[in-house]
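We emphasize that the prediction below concerns an isolated chain of 422 residues; any contacts that depend on oligomerization or on bound cofactors are therefore not represented. The input was used exactly as deposited, without trimming of termini.
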Amino acid sequence: MFQRTLTQLTVINSFVFFVIYFLFTSILYGYLSHRLYDRIDEAMLLHASEFRLVNGRVVPLERPIFDPRIFVLIRSTDGRTLNPIPFREDELKNIDEISSAIEIGELTTKEYEGHIYRLMRWPYTKPENIYDNATNFLIESVIIISIVDSEVQLLNNCLWLIVGGGVISVFGIILAGFLLAKRAMVPIQEAWEKQQQFVSDVSHELRSPLTGIYSNAELMLRYPDKSIREECHRINTIMKESKRMTKLIASLLTLARSDSGKSDLNLGVINLSAVINEVISHFEVFKELNHIGLTANIEPNVEVAGDKDRLHQLMVILLDNAFKFTPAGGQVTVGCYIANRNAIISVRDTGIGIVPENIPRIFDRFFRGDKSRSRNSGGAGLGLAIAKWIVEKHGGKIDVKSAAGKGTKFIISLPMLKKSFS
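Result of the prediction step, given as a token string:
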């Protein structure tokens, strides 16, 4: 699948490069052609428009242009063509044939006997139009002819360079298209691998509770005469596994909504101190059951703009992890204070800690360290991923400091309301 996509992207990228190359060279060639002919046409137009007779003689141009490739012919009302400025007779050979078909006001290019000529025919409107009384030569129009062999040769050379460069650059264009396509495929492959891993992890996580539910239900069906009291332990297992699966599905739904951008926050002015104290009160029972000390250093009336339910969920995740991975006799400390115009939340425990190589991955979905996030603790490895999303959604940052066997400390920084420090 990826090979086919890579090939398609290479073809598309190469096609785009070819189009860009074609457009660029076409514009360059057109501009060069226009500039070359534009300069010649200006000189020819100047000769045509300023050509005039006085007493039957040609008056020199007021702004003379010394270009030996440009010469002037005049055409009479009866179609005769004459050169008013004589030059060698052999140079006039077949001149009538070159200029015979040109119309008044026309500007054209013709090829004749290996040479390229630029021709312009301009109407003669000056008062004195008699060139030769003896032959009754009345001037009707002026024909300007310029030899443009060098310009045409330059354009032809440019065209050959463009074509040759295009042929040679085909390999470079295809290589560039392939490299860009390969680079573009990197995030696609990573996303695909993450999706595959995600599906595998979800399947694995759901299989365990479903297996427990199915097995206990099947055993209950084998002995239909047993009372509910006798099957109480199986019913309890089914309820426990159902609760675990419900929690997992809720976490997956939260992450799916966050990925799609559909999980919006109900922002409001939140007393963060009150939210944290409320969560701590819910964990007082675990303090007694697990024989773990719980200390709170909460600065009063710390206010932030946030979603109360999500911030409550954030504190539950952090405290749940702290109690879950702290052995009996350990200590959990929660703090909340203001520093550098931010609300700082800290949750520190004296638990088993996290090995250094696992710290960069603890916010990955379904990730469990060998010690700190084992399946035996009941978690699915989604809590910290949700916690990070909540913090980032509030415009904050979450950091972790840990050492194996010494404990872990999570530090959350949330932006405060301006009025809190104004």
